[in-house]
Every structure is written in structure tokens, then in C-alpha cells.
Write a structure and sequence with these properties.
14-stranded mixed sheet; 18 strands; outer membrane lipoprotein receptor (LolB), chain A; mainly beta; 261 residues
Amino acid sequence: MRAITFVFLSAVLVPLGVHAQTESQPLDKQVHVQDGGTRVMLESIAVPPMANAPFTLTLQTEWVRSLDGGGTITLVNERRIARDSLGRIYQERWILVPKNGRMKSHMTTIQIADPNNHTLYSCFFDGPHICALTTYSETTSTVYKVDGPPTGPLPNDRGYATREDLGHDFIAGVDTVGTRESVVYNPGVFGNDEKVTVSREYWNAPQLGIDLLSKRSDFQSGKQTFTVTNLDLAEPASQLFDLPEGFKVSDRRTTAAVAPN
């Protein structure tokens, strides 16, 4: 078996729009453009394709960023995730919306990963109803380990890391192991003129291979909290892993090699 460190990217995208003229637009049409802006991808909890460890849960996300003049911006969403005994993973993607605001979140995408057939379907609800088929390389035989620096100095005088064992706690009725990590980066590592800190606290459930509570504080992206609720350890309905009706499949797989089981 091979060991792998993993990060699963959430399909929550917060774009600050930049509009550009296309060739199909009339030449006399005025198009407003602007410089700058960013496109941000928020990372979510990692869900490995473990076999014989089924669950269904709701993941609540809260993202808090500080404003230059004081105050904060807080975005939230919640989404459903499930995994069956075969290691297949079902995930919903919902847009982040302002906390206590008028905007309602809505589901943009469903993702269905199958480690046995090495397929990943991403079914998009905004726009044409298409399920993009790509290769899913992870397998149920992979040994997943949480990545984190040990206590001590970082290479090349980049800074210093601290790792603390927080012991055990029960979350949603499941035993979890807590860890707190903090990394202080020296000036110049990111173009920073002073020391900056990135900290993370997470409570991992070994029997499920996922974090049931994860908190991250980052000088670049603010504070992110992921909380598992409504955890059910029963086998999810098999229909959950069927493609939505009326969607067309767009095969975007390449010939890249897939790791053997």
C-alpha cells in the first residue's frame, strides 16, 4: 500500500468579475473593464475513499475575513457529503453567502467519485446540465496521513513550527483525536516585512478518516471553520450515487495512468 498526503479542494469559487470584449460583440458596444481583482478557491475538508466506513453528514462552513478599516466579512454555507462502503463519495457544492444576509445559497455542483472505476463526475446545475467525467486516481487501498510540520525550525530559516497533541474528544458521538499546529514565518518568506502566523486545529475521526471539526487562521485568507453536523453512520442510499436525470456526460478523461489497487 502507498501513503499519500491529500488536500481536497472545495468547489466554492468567489470571483470578482472582470468583463472582457469578445469577437462576437458589436464593435461599437461599450465594455467596462477594470484592473486588479482576485479569484479565490476555498479549501474544504479532505474526504478519502475509505472502504467499509460509510456515512452521511452535513458540513457547515464559516469564513471570516478582516477589513482594513476594522470589522469583518463573514460568508457561510452548508452542504451534504456521503460515502458508501465501496468508498464512493458524493459531495454537493453550494455557494458561500453573507452570514445573516438576504442572499440565499444554492447548489451549483454535485460530485460523485468512484475509486473502483476511477471516475469522477462533476455535474453542474448552473448553465447547461452537463456531468464532466474525469479520472479519479485515488483508491481504497491508499493509506492517508494528515500532513503537518513537526515541532522545530523550518528549513532555510523560514520560521518555526509548533505541533501540540490535544488528546481525544467525542464529536457527533464519534471518537476524535485533536491536533493544534502553528507556524510562524520569518520576514521575507511571502514578501512580508514582519513575522506572520498560520495556525490550524483539527479533530480527526480515525474510523472515518475525516476531520469532524477543523479551524484554520491564515494571514492571507482569514479564519475558516468547518463543522460536521447530522452525522449518520448508516449506509447511504445507492441512488445517491446515480447521475442526475436529464444531464449529459462530457468525457474529459486523459490517458494518464491510474495507480493500481
